[in-house]
Write a structure and sequence with these properties.
- With 70 residues, this protein is mainly alpha-helical.
- 91% of the residues lie in helices and 0% in strands.
- It is elongated, with a radius of gyration of 20 Å.
Amino acid sequence: MNTLKGLGACAVLAGIAYAVTKVATTDQMWTGFTVTVLALSVIGYMAALRRKSKDRRAARGRAKSRRAAS
């Protein structure tokens, strides 16, 4: 797993280096960075809500969830 994390970090750095060479202005770069961070934050928040919902259902137990469903 650590090898994969290292490869991922290298890929991110390579992507940043490539993007910096292709961006015409720093304003475009910052706008793209901001949009990416916001999108990842929203996706992470939605995933956390979904996980919380699943955890609550699991904590109620199978018997209670079956009674509620029928």
